[in-house]
Amino acid sequence: NAGVMQNPRHLVRRRGQEARLRCSPMKGHSHVYWYRQLPEEGLKFMVYLQKENIIDESGMPKERFSAEFPKEGPSILRIQQVVRGDSAAYFCASSTPGQGDTEAFFGQGTRLTVV
Amino acid sequence: QQQVKQSPQSLIVQKGGISIINCAYENTAFDYFPWYQQFPGKGPALLIAIRPDVSEKKEGRFTISFNKSAKQFSLHIMDSQPGDSATYFCAASITWRGSQGNLIFGKGTKLSVKP
């Protein structure tokens, strides 16, 4: 059973370009969370999605950031017109609630560098 | 009120010693308190988690102590080993329909266990 898969592992973008980060949840998991981690900092919640539905986007910046989790395929975190301050590690986690286990499993992360 | 405060920022322990990391929270609605271990370049991995209806939970060398009235919880690592050297994060959330909800993370404690 493969874990949470994120790609790419490393992404370099120039200022103003778009960044697309992908997250394939664990098999059978229908909930995905995205977190951002700045160097030497804890993780900050961004968005919580079910398939085809955003449950909680209270941590998402109002502009340039969007996320989706379609019925088929991976969850995508999209950052338009990237700026240097977007440089961070982005982690997704997946879970399957309702089976008595609250745990969410994290992927290895995508390290975005904006140059 | 959404913060989780973690201390110390860094910790050096001799092999075989006890590592203790503390966290405090404000929001009494939190009902899930996990601890995560993160190695450089990796995603966080769940170590152990506790609900507020118990005061202590032990799994192997790892113990969570939970003080509901003081709104504090701590991680104890017994017989610390060099392989435990990592960054540890406490977190808290309000669970939602069996899901962990969005986790509020502490800023992390960098643990070094000296041989």
Terminal-residue CA separation of chain A: 36 Å
Cα(first) to Cα(last) distance of chain B is 40 Å
Number of DSSP-assigned strands of chain A: 11
- Structure class of chain B: mainly beta
Q: Could you tell me the mean pLDDT of chain B?
A: 93
Main beta-sheet annotation of chain B: 6 strands, mixed
Rounded average pLDDT of chain A: 91
Task: Give me the Rg of chain B, rounded.
Answer: 14 Å
* Low-confidence spans of chain B: none
Strand content of chain A: over 45%
The quaternary state of the protein chains shown equals heterodimer
Question: Number of helical segments of chain A?
Answer: 0
Count of distinct strands of chain B: 11
Considering DSSP H and I runs of 4 or more, what fraction of the residues of chain B is helical? Answer: under 10%
Q: Which pair has the most extensive contact?
A: A-B, 30 and 26 residues
Query: Major β-sheet of chain A, in short?
Result: 7 strands, mixed
Proportion of helical residues of chain A = under 10%
Name the overall outline of chain A.
Answer: globular
What portion of the residues of chain B fall into strands of 2 or more residues?
over 45%
Low-confidence stretches of chain A: none
Number of DSSP helical runs of chain B: 0
